[in-house]
Each structure stands twice: as C-alpha cells, then as structure tokens.
Amino acid sequence: GPRKIAIANKKGGVGKTTTTINLGSALAKLGRKVLIVDGDLQGSLTSWLNLGDNVNGRDLGAILTGIIPFVDAIFEIEEENFFAIPIDNSLNELKLNFNGDGGWEMALKRELDNWPLGYDYILFDCPASYNAILINILAASDEIIIPVQTEILSLNSTLSFLENLSQIKQSINPTLEIAGILPVMFDKRTRHSKEILEIMAEAPNLGNHLFKTVIRNNIRLAEGPMRSRTIFRASPSSNGAVDYMLLAEELIDQENNE
Amino acid sequence: GPRKIAIANKKGGVGKTTTTINLGSALAKLGRKVLIVDGDLQGSLTSWLNLGDNVNGRDLGAILTGIIPFVDAIFEIEEENFFAIPIDNSLNELKLNFNGDGGWEMALKRELDNWPLGYDYILFDCPASYNAILINILAASDEIIIPVQTEILSLNSTLSFLENLSQIKQSINPTLEIAGILPVMFDKRTRHSKEILEIMAEAPNLGNHLFKTVIRNNIRLAEGPMRSRTIFRASPSSNGAVDYMLLAEELIDQENNE
Ligand SMILES: Nc1ncnc2c1ncn2[C@@H]1O[C@H](COP(=O)(O)OP(=O)(O)OP(=O)(O)O)[C@@H](O)[C@H]1O
Ligand SMILES: Nc1ncnc2c1ncn2[C@@H]1O[C@H](COP(=O)(O)OP(=O)(O)OP(=O)(O)O)[C@@H](O)[C@H]1O
Ligand SMILES: [Mg+2]
Ligand SMILES: [Mg+2]
What we know:
2 copies of one chain form a homodimer.
Chain A: E1 3-7, H1 16-29, E2 34-38, H2 44-48, H3 60-64, E3 75-76, E4 82-85, H4 107-114, E5 121-125, H5 132-140, E6 143-149, H6 152-171, E7 177-184, H7 191-202, H8 219-223, H9 231-234, H10 239-255
Parallel strand pairs in A: 1-5, 1-6, 2-4, 2-5, 6-7
Antiparallel strand pairs in A: 3-4
Helix pairs in contact in A: 1-10, 4-5
The complex binds adenosine-5'-triphosphate (2 copies) and magnesium ion (2 copies).
One adenosine-5'-triphosphate (ATP) sits between chains A (12-18, 40, 42, 44, 128, 184-185, 215, 217-218, 221-222) and B (11-13, 128, 149, 151, 153-154).
C-alpha cells in the first residue's frame, strides 16, 4: 500500500505546509501518485491550493466524523499524479474531541485500511497542536518527516517533540518510524544557522535521522502560495525547487531499503 | 489594574514568544513592572528563561486547575521589574480540557480578578492552537497584540484569525480590544516582504490596527535564546533591540489614550 507519512513538528512555522506541498509535487513529477492531506484547522494547505470555496462538506473533518468516506473528499489539483484533501477551517477544535467513545483515535486509520487506494504516497500536513486530528494522523501513518528550522527555539522544541513521539509510539502506534529529520530555512550566511545544524548532526536520536538534503532559506518558497503555485511552477530553477527535488529523490531511494 | 495583553496568532512561528520576552524586557527597562506568562505547552518561553527545572508544580497549569494561587507561580528573572510564570510542558493538552463544569473558560480570569497584583503589564505568550489554555487567556485579557510575519501564508492565517476573534469577543470576552498588529521579520531586501506589508496597510480591519513600529528580520533575535538572554543582553545595539524598544515606547504612548 501507499507510504503514509505525517509531516509534523510541534514547533510552529518550520515549513510543515511548505514541505507537504512541494515534496508532494516533486514526488508526483518523479512519477509517483501522491495524495496530500490538510490536517491543520488553520487550513494553510487548503488556502494555498485555493480549495476553500469548493469544500462543501467534503473535507478531512467529514471523514473523521464518519459523514463521508475517504475517497469522497479527494480533489484533483492542476498537476498530474497529484491530489489533495482539504479541511474546512470553520471546524471548532474543541468540539472535535470526538464524543469519547472507544477508538476515536483510530477513525482515520480505519478509513485508510478500508479503502484500497492506488496512491504511492499520502502526505499529511500536521498542526502544531496536540489535538484529536494530530492523534488520528499519527495513528494512521507509518512514517513521519520532521522539519526543523536551523534556529535554537526550533531545535529545543524538536528535541521535546522527539520525546513526545516515543510516548505516542507506545500508546497509539508502535509501528511509526522516522523517515527523516529535515533541516529547513538553512542560511549559510549566518553563524547561528550553521551552529544549529552542527548541533543537530551530533545530537543523539537526531543526527542519525537527518536527511542528506538540507532545504535552504529561499524567498521563492515563500512567494509560491501567492498564486497557488508549487515551487516548480513559481520558480523552477530556484534553490527551493532544487532542494525539494533532491529530497524527493532521497525519499524514493529509501523505497529500496524498505 | 495591569494591562493584560495576549500575544497571539494562530499562525505558527511568527514571533509570539520572541515578542513576549523582548517587549516585556523593554517595558521593564522603561520602568514598568512586567509579568510574562508562558501559555504554550510547547514551553518555548520557559526553556528560553531556563525555568524548566525549577517548576516543581508551580506553573500556569497548576493555576488553571486550581492547585495553587496565581502568585505562587511567579519567578523572578534576572532583570529589574521583570517576572515570569512558566509552564510544565509535560501537561497533556487533551486532558486539560477541564472536566466540563461551568465556567472553565474563566478559571484564569477569576484568579486574576482575585489577586491585587502590583504589575503594570501582564503579557501572555499564546499557543498557535485553539485550546483550553488559549481560551482562558483570551477571556482574562483586555487586549491582544497580533504578530504577523510579512509573508503570504502568515497574512492569510492572520485574516482568518481576525474573523475568529470577533466570534471569541461575542462568546467569551466582549471587552477584548486589539492593542495592535505587529509586522515582524520584515526584510526590506525582498519584494515579497514589502508587498505583503503594503497589503497589510491597506487591508480593512488590519491596516487601522498596525503599529507604527515594524520589527525587522534580525538574526540577533534568533540568537538571544542560546544563552537565555533577551535581545538587550545579547545584542543591545542591534536592530532587534532598537525595534523592540520602539515598540515598548509606542505601547506606553498608548497608555495616555486609554
Ligand atoms: N526554505 C524556506 N525558505 C524561506 N521561506 C520558507 C521556507 N520554508 C517555508 N518558508 C516560509 O516560512 C513560513 C513558515 O512556513 P510554513 O507555513 O510552511 O510552516 P508551518 O510549519 O506549516 O507553519 P504552521 O506551524 O503555522 O503550520 C512561511 O511564510 C513560508 O512561506
Ligand atoms: N524579527 C526576527 N528576526 C529574525 N528571527 C526572528 C525574529 N523574530 C523571531 N525570530 C525567530 O523566528 C523563529 C520563530 O519565532 P518564535 O518562536 O518566537 O515564534 P512563535 O510565534 O512563538 O512560534 P510558535 O508558533 O512555535 O509558538 C524563532 O526561531 C525566532 O528565534
Ligand atoms: Mg502549516
Ligand atoms: Mg512561541
């Protein structure tokens, strides 16, 4: 079945959404069939792809609460092999805490196990908050990619997130593996960025999971969402496009080791 | 009583913690008595100030669940007029949703109303997620400062956050006013940053709340937390120090208009 990968970190603003969309697009360009899912009530992925107006009840929230099956929320986006599930950002997070009946954490997993899906990759854009949606995604995923900005606040939160993950593995999903830890917004002009990348490489439980690819700080990546574009449509020869294509290739290389 | 200000935005990584600590320090330097509170279970503020090891049950979580009174969680930090309340980041957010008895949203407000506190400013560092702690803070605060990175994803989330705020005002706290919207990480070298700042200035419901002060992108601000320092101790003559001092002066100017 598909590789189901959560793109997650409890630190905010570390490129979770940027990675989900641009890595997804790169994998689709390399011939993989890719589904990306907006798991963040903030709805950055949904608004980036301009899906907000078409949702009409076909979104992740409707899947989690059992109103529609998984396949009914899938939208085609303008590239080959590339599909998305939006989120309705008017959902109230506090009300989503499912009415406490057994197994609410497994609502998404049950859906995914039921539907034979012809995808090679399903990427989930995760919220920074520890809520019912994040739990569902981590329970349904096999792997996790953790973007980390090369700055100290991001590193500290990530170390604490790695501790949380081992608790989540024990209680919710023992099979969850780290596909990789991804340095992002790296700026070789600043000592701080280089210092933090060095600390990451040497940190136990972190260094051994680092991707070879480093996503460099590149304003083109921030401009992409202006006209609902991936980095490949907005600036195909930019550092951002090069880096996310390298990451996709590195992920495909991992397939042979699975 | 003190000005109680929430530093909040549902977009992640927009400088909420950086603003709480550095604005707080600047106000303390200008002679105001300042208390900053870590309201984010991620605990960036707590770890920045190296308070994590001393918490021993004296934190915001213990106040919200009624275990200790507000004043028992106040720690002195190494500057005059400057105090902090940490958070224990092992708290489980899903369990914090108070056992549903009436008025859990007002737990913090009740505490603050009970304790005559000699502070001029109480600044709350807010989480990016819509959870019970955020609701408590927004119910207890009189004002809100909204940091916005001058990039499109941040602007889009902020516009949606402003819509949420009017719902929160109606249901939880009609007195909550916007003290200001703060452009952060502004980089005059990029067209994108300038373009977004222009859009912000012209956007209805946003432009009229913009602070005159703009916080420029400055790596010194990212380095501060390395040795638990505010920008004033880490790099007193940097752009970051200048900008946060200007913001503090602008906030004090507002006092006369209150
Ligand atoms: N490599 C990069 N270079 C420059 N800017 C980047 C890069 N990656 C992301 N950005 C920008 O940084 C900001 C944060 O990225 P993004 O919104 O994708 O992070 P996130 O982790 O999804 O945030 P949130 O916690 O709000 O969900 C955005 O404005 C984005 O455009
Ligand atoms: N003006 C600035 N210039 C450069 N870097 C900054 C600036 N303000 C904040 N930063 C850095 O940007 C990152 C995000 O800031 P910060 O963690 O304060 O945001 P936040 O909104 O509190 O994030 P979260 O959503 O995770 O709570 C941090 O690494 C911080 O050091
Ligand atoms: Mg995001
Ligand atoms: Mg923060």
